[in-house]
Amino acid sequence: MTKTLFKLILLEALLILPSFTVRSQTTIQPKTRYYIGICDWMILKRQKLGEFALAKAIGADGVLLDMGSLGNNILFENKLRDSKEADIFHRTADSLRVEVPTVAMSGFFAQSFLQRNNYKDLIRDCLHTMSVFGSKVAFLPLGGCGKDWQKTDSLYDKLVHRLHVVGEMASKAHVIIGIRTRLDAKDNKKLLKRIHSGGIKIYYSFQDAVEKHRDICKELKELGSNAIVEILASNTDGVNLREDPQIDMQKIKGTLDQMGWSGWLIIERSRDIHRVHDVKYNYSRNVGFLKEIFQ
């Protein structure tokens, strides 16, 4: 069987998957208002079984597990479609008391969500993977769409339509798709209003705000707690969070407390530029710092 034929058969099988019930997520972390997680692709463990042991060693409460690369493939390179493989991952995470609160579609950092005709199939694939872990959030970055959609009415309308469609898919599965747009708070609120689906919320990024010279606390308050599903609580690479003068984490915690927001803070980058490949050093320091502040 050729590789292309196999992928087509796999796609057909995915399209006729029966509706699934999202597994109830076991609460394996102590009760707290904030939880700290890390991205598996940033710790060089994308869909690798060792990500859970590494997350445990780093001190994280959970991992943002990725669907795998996309590239020119029909679907994500997602090994967790295999029920046996998925069961091994689920049991390993449980045994180490490491949660998978979120499943990421990082392939859309480079691929355009606007240009993928099979976007609904890709979302179904993600929702199915989420059901393995009882994950309640999917991460959908829109970086691959470029910037033209923000100033072109037809592209803006197309994106709104697609996000409404997948938002309703998420709502039916009782989960949320968090979108990372790089827009400011005002434009994110406008976009959410146009999408008009409870299944879509904002996946807020500290890095995006810093790079655009926006006030993080002001933006958080303007968005409001109901619009923010999770937070990428890191900056671009340079220094670890503890040494970062651009992010006032104590002030941010005070703002989130005041807003009544609670949930997962996910560390993506903020790696020491002089030790950028030292995963344990960077992420254990960043996790430790966030836990000092938020837990």
Shape: globular
| Overall strand count | 8
Percent in strands: 5-15%
Largest sheet: 8 strands, parallel, barrel
Written as H for each helix and E for each strand, in order along the chain, the element string is HEHEHEHEHHEHEHHEHEH
Spatially, the strands of the biggest sheet line up as 1-2-3-4-5-6-7-8
Percent of residues in helices comes to 40-55%
**Gyration radius, rounded:** 18 Å
The low-confidence parts are 1-26
Which structural class do you get from the secondary structure elements? Answer: alpha/beta
- How many helices? 11
Mean pLDDT: 92
End-to-end Cα distance: 53 Å
Structure, explained:
The chain has 295 residues and is of the alpha/beta class. The protein is 43% helix and 15% strand. The protein is built from 11 helices and 8 strands. It has helices spanning 3-15, 50-58, 83-95, 119-133, 148-151, 153-172, 185-195, 206-211, 216-223, 249-259, 279-294; strands at residues 34-39, 62-66, 99-104, 137-141, 176-180, 200-205, 228-232, 263-267. The chain has an 8-stranded parallel beta barrel, surrounded by 5 helices. α3 links the parallel β2 (62-66) and β3. α9 packs parallel to α10. The model is unreliable at 1-26 (pLDDT under 50).
Task: Quickly list its features.
alpha/beta, 295 residues, 8-stranded parallel beta barrel, 43% helix
Short overview:
By secondary structure, the protein is α/β, with parallel strands linked by helices. 43% of the residues lie in helices and 15% in strands. β2, α3 and β3 form a beta-alpha-beta unit.
